[in-house]
C-alpha cells in the first residue's frame, strides 16, 4: 500500500508533477507504504477510490439462477458457459433466490519462512484490539476465504484504506472476480507486497476493508487496527 502524497504547486505543470513523484519515491524509505513503492498512480489512488464509492455500474435486470439457465437456452455456446460457471450447483435449493450472499470466513497472512497468521473474520466486522502485527520490511500476502450462496455474485472486489495517526496513507483495490454459489469456500490471494521500514513506518495503523460487487453492494466492512514493529510477535 503506497502512501498518498501530493505536491503543493498549482497549475499542473509537467515538471512540477514529475518533481512531486520523484520526491515521493525518494522519501519512501522513511515513510514508505505498506506494499508498493510510491508511483504517480498510487499517489492519486485514494482520490480514485473515493470517486468509485459513489458510482454504480448499471448491469441491467437481475435474474435468479433458474432464470439464468432458461434465458438463451437455445444458444449452445452460452449454455456451455453457464454450465461451466455454475458447476455442480443445486438449482432446486437456490434457484428462486435473487440476491447473492457472500460471507467472508477467514484471513490468512502469509510471509516466507514463517507460519501463516490465521484470523477469523468477525461477523460484525469489528475485531477487538490489535488484529495482527507485521514485521517492518517483510514480504507478505493476504489470502481470503469466502463463501457464495443463493445466486451468482458479479465483480466481487476488495478495497482497503489505511490511516496512520489520523492521516490516510494508502488505498488499495483488488478484483476477485465473478463466482457462482457452492458449498465449498473460495479462496483468493492478494499479490505479495512488502511492509515499509524505518522509524516513521513503525507504529499503529487503522484500516477499513470492504467487499463489494458490481452493483456496489457491500457484503462486509471490517474496521480494525494493526501494528508494524521491528520484529514479529513471539509465538
TrEMBL record:
Localization: Cytoplasm
SUPFAM superfamilies: E set domains (SSF81296)
A cellular component term, taken from the record's GO annotations: membrane
Gene Ontology molecular function, alphabetical: Rho GDP-dissociation inhibitor activity
Matching InterPro entries: Ig_E-set, Rho_GDI, RhoGDI_dom_sf
Native organism: Rhamnella rubrinervis
Region ranges (Disordered): 1-35
The organism's place on the tree of life at top rank: Eukaryota
Keyword field: Cytoplasm
One Gene Ontology term from the biological process aspect of the record: Rho protein signal transduction
Family per similarity comment: Belongs to the Rho GDI family.
Protein's recorded name: Rho GDP-dissociation inhibitor 1
